[in-house]
Amino acid sequence: MHIDQASEAELKEQLNDLYEQYEQLAERKLGLDLTRGKPGAEQVALSNALDGILGGDYRAADGTDVRNYGGLDGLAEARELFGALLGVAPEETLVGGNSSLTLMYQVIDFAMNEGLRGEDTAWALNDQVKFLCPVPGYDRHFSICEYMHIEMLPVPMLDSGPDMDRVEELVRNDPDIKGIWCVPRFSNPSGCVYSDDTVERLAKLPQLAGEHFIVMWDNAYAVHSLYDDAPALASIADYCRAHDTLDHVFQFGSTSKVTFAGGGVAFVGSSERNLSTLKAHLAFQTIGPDKVNQLRHVRFLPDRAAIEAHMARHAALIRPRFEAVLDTLERELAGTGMGHWTAPRGGYFISFDTRPGLAREVVDLAGNIGVKLTPAGATHPYGRDEADTNIRLAPTFPSSEEVQASIDAFVVCVKLATVKQALA
Ligand code: PLP
């Protein structure tokens, strides 16, 4: 029954029943955790063959001994492989260490303090620097901004990606806006895939926004489909070439959720001009990345087909966890008006929206019975979800049984908070 149609007496009866269920859950002393957007143990084990794969052959295709120093851009074959994933040429690709987040930080740090086009273009010379942050979004993007004193302006995330009418209006009217964060395929946390129109408008955005504007294209889930029919993502690089904006777009990716989350390979794609500027900055930080790991990755996943076959094995492991969450939400909450949620075709998250003003309470209720959820607000800049509705669910890391137990308890917490609010 829809909550708005329930009489006061019905609500009171439901409330008593829910308190009883909640008490029973409390007695079970659960110790569950749906917060971690990281691969489970079986997933990382899919890549154990990386260990020892070189078999004593440390030579790259061009004869480079990968054990030694050098090669700031990364190994040629790694640039080719990962550049192709981003839709850019090897010369437009730099392969770094184990974390794309580090590369993102380095790009922002560089643009802020050194300037992408010489020191007089450093954003830090402006009184204010602002970034557009589609919400709900990824908290670590927001942390980088906060750390760098970049003011964050939230923009709504639609099923097609960021609300581009709003984005274009904002950049047209505010020259202090220097960038936008994007997770274009299986966005964190909504799971949406940006539409072709959105990708093209983002590629054109620098023309509206000005010379020193950049698009931070974090394609962390580029190959992370759960289903064969998952929507594809248009190539932003192709649109950038058509609109002459490649200098304004930095694409990122990594194998953190392909091979080892702590021991993968990260990469950035942009114009050759940007990469050579960036390299001049990176040269002060390192003599070169871990080419041994890059070669291990190329040997393990030599081409797109190998990556896809490997990702299908990941999907087989995590799809049942996603389905457990979605089936339970559908069975328990569909048509009740107590919340709505996304049903992603890939990625690592499900985004759940409570009725306004209830996300914090649901997270607290769950926490009090041993079910840890991502803190409410984490998906918004400064941790401020004004409507207090969004909760990010991350089902990959716990076992299937734990996922089921967590979502069963979650549903009770959502119902309890909603019925209480309706009676207040
Ligand atoms: N970008 C997004 C959208 C993520 O969700 C994550 C991890 O959860 C990362 C980046 C982290 O990437 P990396 O491990 O390459 O630093």
- In helices, the fraction of residues equals 40-55%
Task: Give the low-pLDDT segments.
Answer: none
Number of domains: 2
Order of helices and strands: HEHHEHEHEEHEHEHEEHHHEEHEEH
- CATH class designation of the largest domain: Alpha Beta
Q: Name the average pLDDT.
A: 97
Portion in beta strands: 5-15%
User: Can you tell me the CATH superfamily of the largest domain?
Assistant: Type I PLP-dependent aspartate aminotransferase-like (Major domain)
Strand arrangement, major sheet: 2-9-8-7-6-3-4-5
What structural category arises from helix and sheet content?
alpha/beta
The biggest sheet, with number of strands, parallel, antiparallel or mixed sense and barrel status, is: 8 strands, mixed
InterPro entries: AspAT_Ic, PyrdxlP-dep_Trfase, PyrdxlP-dep_Trfase_major, PyrdxlP-dep_Trfase_small
Keywords: Aminotransferase, Transferase
GO molecular function, one term: L-aspartate:2-oxoglutarate aminotransferase activity
Protein name: Aminotransferase class I/II-fold pyridoxal phosphate-dependent enzyme
Task: Map the helices and strands.
Elements: H1 8-27, E1 32-33, H2 41-45, H3 76-86, E2 93-95, H4 100-113, E3 130-135, H5 139-147, E4 151-158, E5 161-162, H6 164-173, E6 177-182, H7 196-209, E7 214-218, H8 236-243, E8 249-254, E9 266-269, H9 272-282, H10 291-300, H11 304-333, E10 340-341, E11 350-353, H12 359-368, E12 371-372, E13 390-393, H13 400-423
Parallel strand pairs: 1-12, 3-4, 3-6, 6-7, 7-8
Antiparallel strand pairs: 2-9, 4-5, 8-9, 10-11, 11-13
Helix pairs in contact: 1-13, 6-7, 7-8, 11-13, 12-13
